[in-house]
Amino acid sequence: MVKDLTIAIPTYNRNDFLIKILDTIPNNELVVISDNGGSVTEDIINKHPGFLFVKPPEKLEMFENWNFCINKVQTKWFIIPSDDDLFYVNAFSKINAAIEKYDDADIIIFGHNTIDEFDNVLSVWSPHEIKILEKPNGYNYFKYGVEARLPSIIFKTDFAKSYGFFDESYVFTAADSLLIQKCMLNGKAVLLPDIISAYRIWQNNFTSKYISSKEWLLKIDKWQDEIAQDVKIVYGNLNLTINSSHIKDEVYANNLLAGIVNKKSKYGFKEAFIFVKSVRFPWRAKFITKLKIIKALLIK
Question: Which of 149, 173, 203 corresponds to the end of one domain?
Answer without folding.
Answer: 203
